[in-house]
Write a structure and sequence with these properties.
The structure holds two protein chains of two kinds. By secondary structure, chain A is an alpha/beta fold. Helix content of chain A is 34%, strand content 25%. Chain A folds into two domains: 154 residues, Rossmann fold, CATH 3.40.50.300; 67 residues. In chain A, strands 1, 2, 3, 4, 5, 6, 7, 8, 9, 10 and 11 form an eleven-stranded mixed beta sheet that branches. In chain A, helix 3 crosses helix 4 and helix 4 packs parallel to helix 5. The two termini of chain A are 32 Å apart.
Chain lengths: 230, 509
Amino acid sequence: MLICEALVIEQDDFRLTADLAFGAGKITALIGPSGAGKSTLLAALAGFLAPASGRVMWQDMDLTAVPPGARPISAIFQDNNLFPHLTIAQNVGLGLRPTWHLTADERACVERALSSVGLAGLGGRKPAALSGGQQSRAALARVLLADRPVVLLDEPFAALGPGLKDEMLDLVQSTLGVAGRTVLMVTHDPDDARRIADQASLVAAGTVSAPVATQAFFEAPSPALSAYLG
Amino acid sequence: MAQRAVAIAPRWPGAAAAALVLVLTIGTLAAVGWRAEWQRGLSPADWAAIRFTVTQALVSAGLSVLLAIPVARALARRQFRGRAALITLMGAPFLLPVVVAVIGLLAVFGRAGVVNSALVWLGLPAISIFGFHGVVLAHVFFNLPLAIRLILQGWLVIPAERFRLAASLNAPVGRLLEWPMLRAVVPGVFLVIFLICLTSFAVALTLGGGPRATTVELAIYQALRFDFDLGRAALLACVQFGLCVLAAAVVWRLSLVDTMGAGLDRTVQRWDLRWPMLDYLMIALVAAFLFTPLAMVVWRGVPGLALLPAEVWAAAGRSVIVAAASALLCTCMALALALRGGRMVAITGVLPLAASGLVVGTGAFLLVYPFINPARLALPVTVLVNATLALPFALRAIGQTVEGIDRDFGRLGASLGLSRWGWVRIVVLPRIRRPLGFGAGLAAALSMGDLGVIALFAGEAQQTLPLAMYRLMGAYRMEAAAGAALMLLALSLAAFWICDRGGRGNADL
């Protein structure tokens, strides 16, 4: 379980509290209005933001003081998920080991990860030579290869068209979901949550509510959720 | 948005670079202040040097700006073939070694130069390039292109819509748009050039001299090299520092204008254009003024190449080594400082702008001479000082790019667990190749042509190419000096070109 224990995040006069647990191996959607602190919560979980108080735990390991690169957590951001000067294979390879030079075995792993997201044979290209959807797939391949149990998705598919976005969501489920990763996905589209999330959690009014099974979440919405859904 | 929970890049190299800059600027200043014989006061000759320094800088800056305004206006509103090339070439004097330009100016305005030959043929009295007007002429030659580029930039940032609006209102463009722009831009340009002219040692060394045309820096040089009067040299160095700091403080308040000049390749459509010939005449005159001396360097230099004595070739070898070392050191320092970031670093990055090479050199001389013959350290000290003086330019070239990389990819790098050196090697270096190459080229060219610190320290056996060339001129071996000038010009441009190309080569970002 990924646990936020009495977590308080403060930024200037913004304040977010979270005291809950995200089930291991589940896909959880974080839903809420923009500016409510969804991305801020992910930044704190990933280790980019030191919380004002409280702890972040993975199973029984305290992550609060662990630097981002050493946490059992991978992240895909809204943009800049690939280094433009490296090839796709090099970018994906960084998930394995932070270096440019990979062994033949490692290169084979990269190639397998690329084909599992439908990018077989494109490893030699630079990101600029790929479409937006393909770039998302490459980032996903890196996360698959990194083999860290928790994956944070900070609206990585927001810039894609609706068809392409659904395709990517399905790919997340068929790869990360099937592999048993604990996925936290920020979205403000309820359909995204309905499509792949096992559970959903509302981020609004300075707090993160405990996750609820997705169907129940939408069928019996809390007053705050009703206000957001309109 | 979020503060960084981790600092990705290594921090100690930045601290080391900042320390080196501080030692070379503040440290040498302390040495100078400590050795200065304050009780002695300034002699009438010293006051004359101060007056001359300030007057020539004022006149040079004033003339440069006054001449630049009509030329910049002409360039801003006329489109013609070769305009882009002309503007690019106007950036070249920054890379041009001062002694080379002086040789070119001598070939045009000197005793046996083109202008005097014409005057004699017309039966008019000859003019002399030495003294006050020679120094001013050389300073205008160097700074007019800079002034033109900076003021042109001011013209081009006036939005095209404003000109359209003014035209539709039939309003006077000059008073409505151009005068306010000039009032905002010109004082800054004037001060930058004033500061440059305060610290240009090599011009005064070659074209000035004598009791009526000695700058403070030249007086420092003479006190140190000829009289070995360390107390007076140190005192004058303090005076020079005071002048520079005053000017730099004013410039700083006005915030430095970007000298690299991006986006100068457009003209604004105008509806108020009369007298096209006058504009073109201005442009042609300025081009002739700037490029005739350079053409003369090549013209006179080619036959001179055959006359070069062997020690000039050795000096050229030393210059190449000094330039390479100083470019390497400068880029390493700039990179270290840029990676570290922060306020302290921003200050150390601009500190050398207020430092004069001669003041730093005098301080370094005072620091080392009790222990070792300064001549033996001539080349290492020159490398250190040149790298430090070029640092602000290199830092400006890469600083913003490094900040951008941090902003865009800092999180990705951190979440991948890249080590500090891995971050620099895998992410930063490949992404800043272009500006880094440009900065290195700048540092190499500046160092190649430098005639400042080296003149304080070097004996025969340590001379670099600019110094060897200056000595040839002093011995009236003008043909050989012209050959050396051509070689120096070629080496400076080649040094810049190689570094800049190295940064561009298949860098696809």
